[in-house]
Each structure stands twice: as C-alpha cells, then as structure tokens.
Design a protein that fits this description.
By secondary structure, the chain is an alpha+beta fold. The chain is built from 6 helices and 5 strands; from the N terminus they run H-H-H-E-E-H-H-E-H-E-E. The chain folds into 2 domains: 32 residues, no CATH class; 103 residues, no CATH class. Strand 1 and strand 2 form a beta hairpin. The radius of gyration is 18 Å and the shape is elongated. The two termini are 30 Å apart.
Length: 150
C-alpha cells in the first residue's frame, strides 16, 4: 500500500537525489524528528477515545464547553454531537508555511489519518463501531471527524 507519492515532499526528493543509493524515509525522519516527536505522532495516528454520556470523543480534541454547546444545538442526537465535537480542519493540525503541493499534502494527510484512525478504532474499540469521515467544504477546506455508527 502506498499512502502517498514520494514526489509531494520536495525536501525528501532533494536529499534522495543527493544520496541516490542510501537515503530513505527513515533517514529523513532521523534528520527531521526526535524520540519525543515520534511518540507524539504515535498518539496522533492512533488517538484515544473517551466516553461522555454514551458519546465517543477524541481524547485530545475534547472540550467540555464545546460538547455542551453541540449537545444543545443537536438536540441530543448522539451521532451529530460526536460529529461536531470531533470535527477538525485538517490543515489546522500543522502550521502551513509552504506553498508547494499544499493541497495535495493536506488531502494525503487526511487520507492517512482516516486509514490509521479507522484501523486503530477497529482494533482498540471494536464494540464502538466508530466511523471516520473526511468532508470537503465548498471552499475546498477538508475536515475530518469521528462518530459512532448506529
């Protein structure tokens, strides 16, 4: 399975071209990150779920005030509450300070998160039947959310 094309990361391509026989993504990670970052990404790609009043929320996204607001707005509809509380704009996960292939990278990240979150939830919370969805707004902004399938 190929999660994304190597071509979308121009810095990786430059290093690979300079070291054609011995440069891989592992080398790139070694240059760009440390153990703390690697551990943080483990939580990012395999998020934990918390339950509040029979609703499932992404632990690192949950906010009580936002939950209470959507609980009233959605008139107690569990699926809609979960969808809105767990909703996150994909480009907001990282500071975007580049312009090359930005849209392609955001789409790739969304698809990767959907893959890993779905796999994580199937393994860690099989009884919850959690669904991961990507939504595109008319202005081409991408969002990701999680909710329980009834």
């Amino acid at each position: 399975m190929n999660l994304f094309s190597d071509d979308i990361v121009s810095e990786y391509q430059k290093w690979r071209k300079a070291n054609p026989n011995n440069f891989s993504w592992w080398n790139f990670v070694n240059m760009k990150a440390n153990l703390d970052t690697a551990l943080a990404f483990a939580k990012f790609y395999c998020p934990e779920i918390i339950e509040i009043e029979e609703c499932c929320f992404l632990k690192d996204k949950y906010n009580y005030e936002i939950y209470e607001s959507w609980k009233q707005e959605c008139k107690g509809n569990k699926k809609n509450i979960e969808m809105m509380v767990n909703l996150y704009q994909i480009c907001d996960f990282f500071e975007i300070n580049e312009t090359d292939n930005e849209r392609e990278k955001i789409v790739a990240l969304g698809n990767i998160l959907k893959f890993f979150w779905t796999t994580t939830f199937e393994k860690m919370y099989p009884d919850k039947k959690l669904k991961v969805e990507i939504y595109e707004e008319p202005d081409e902004e991408l969002f990701i959310t999680v909710y329980s399938e009834e």
